[in-house]
Amino acid sequence: MDTISTDIRTVSTPCGEITYTFERKKVKNINLRVKHDGNVYVSAPKRVPAKTADEFVISRSSMIQQAVTSFAAMELMKERQKNLSDDKAVILGNEYSIRTMADRREYAEIFGGSVIIHMKNTADSQRRISIYTAWLKKYTEEVFLRIMHDVHEKFVPLGIAFPQLKIRSMTARWGSCHTYKKMIVLNRRMIEAPLNCISHVVTHEFCHFIHPDHSRQFYTLLDKMCPTWREDKKQLEKLVIL
Question: Is the predicted pLDDT of residue 81 greater than 60, yes or no?
């Protein structure tokens, strides 16, 4: 179907900011698609105002977020399965070999230059993935919370309370700040990046509690709180491809 025009738009929703591609086509109704890569597309008749499309996305924000999260989780599982089959994992900027060890207890740990998966039946590949995934989820939460507490100390004088942490699979952003919920959402893929990269994203989101937009005042505060954020951002985008 021929596209008359295309526009990239961003709207604020109860689920956070959503960026979508707005396409005017020879269609009768407004249609919405969420692709496996997490990109959102809205097509509408040529006379439909952009504001109407924005309102449509806002009304469907919960469904969009669920679809994006579901697709991201599937991609994450594929990536972890690939990593496990390749016997490697990248954690906090370091590459580890993945080994299994027969044990009556089942757990995983970093020991030396390896992630060692302790399990009863070392031939059970699905169980291997399950143990690794559970361990990485817990480890990621511990690391992210530690960084959040370190960053939060800089914001205590500004009257910012410690926010709730949510960790999600996301395909288009490293983090988001929900000021009304007092919540910071972080991309679980960042566990692959060095600590300074994660810290810069956390600092970025904390700054949004003071300045919800990306105004000049926001970047002035970010420069003060994290002077190396530009270098950290480049390093993150180079090391971890979403």
Answer: no
What is residue 41's three-state secondary structure? strand
Average pLDDT, the chain: 88
Evaluate the CA torsion angle 205, 211, 214, 217 in order and state its sign: negative
The Cα 188–Cα 174 span in angstroms is: 8
Confidence of residue 240 (pLDDT cuts 50, 70, 90): confident
Structure tokens at 28: 């009768």
pTM of the full structure: 0.68
Domains of the chain: 3-70 (no CATH), 92-239 (3.30.2010.10)
Strand partners for 110: 115
Per DSSP, 163 falls in state: P
Query: H-type helices in 90-181, by residue range?
Result: 125-155
User: Which amino acid is residue 212, in one-letter code?
Assistant: P
